[in-house]
């Protein structure tokens, strides 16, 4: 929600969604240097590519990328064609950033939670208790 930029600017009728999202991600990373991000978007236009780009630079700060896959009708409305962006997992540097795909939040949630729990388990070790709220 923080990455949404709607309406005209003082110099343009339409805003550049990519430029705004890229700048907003950088600002958020600087404003909150200790947060590890779960980036959530859709495959309608540029979210997946922007999130992969962000992960390439700040991979240790990105826990996962969650992408809602649009229906064929939503694809046409989003960018005029059927078929979204590449949905392969991304590998950035030495660390793989998990990418979770699903048709909606109900499909994304259990897979994303499993990924985050596995990361928590790996970070604390098998003999350490984990906090399910994280």
What does this structure look like?
By secondary structure, the protein is α/β, with parallel strands linked by helices. Helix content is 41%, strand content 17%. The chain is built from 4 helices and 5 strands. The protein has helices at 17-31, 47-58, 72-79, 105-124, and strands spanning 37-42, 62-68, 90-92, 95-97, 99-102. A hairpin with a 2-residue loop joins β3 and β4. The model is unreliable at 82-90 (pLDDT under 50).
Residue runs with pLDDT of under 50 for 5 or more positions = 82-90
Number of strands: 5
Give the overall shape. flat
Question: What is the rounded Rg?
Answer: 16 Å
From the N-terminal CA to the C-terminal CA, the straight-line distance is 21 Å
Helix content: 40-55%
Q: Strands across the major sheet, in which order? A: 1-2-5
**DSSP strand (E) fraction?**
15-25%
Number of helices: 4
Largest sheet: 3 strands, parallel
In round numbers, the mean pLDDT is: 77
Order of helices and strands: HEHEHEEEH
Which class of secondary structure composition applies to the elements? alpha/beta
Please describe the topology of this protein.
Blueprint lengths: L16 H15 L5 E6 L4 H12 L3 E7 L3 H8 L10 E3 L2 E3 L1 E4 L2 H20 L10
Parallel strand pairs: 1-2, 2-5
Antiparallel strand pairs: 3-4
How would you summarize what this structure contains?
With 134 residues, the protein is of the alpha/beta class.
């Amino acid at each position: 929600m923080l990455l949404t930029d709607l309406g005209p600017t003082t110099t343009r009728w339409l805003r550049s969604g990519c430029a705004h999202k890229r700048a907003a991600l950088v600002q958020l990373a600087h404003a909150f240097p200790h947060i590890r991000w779960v980036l959530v978007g859709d495959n309608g236009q540029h979210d997946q590519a922007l999130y992969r780009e962000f992960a390439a630079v700040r991979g240790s700060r990105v826990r996962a990328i969650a992408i809602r896959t649009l229906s064929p009708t939503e694809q046409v409305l989003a960018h005029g064609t059927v078929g979204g962006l590449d949905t392969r997992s991304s590998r950035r540097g030495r660390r793989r950033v998990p990418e979770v795909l699903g048709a909606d939040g109900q499909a994304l949630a259990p897979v994303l939670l499993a990924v985050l729990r596995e990361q928590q388990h790996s970070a604390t070790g098998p003999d350490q208790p984990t906090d399910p709220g994280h």
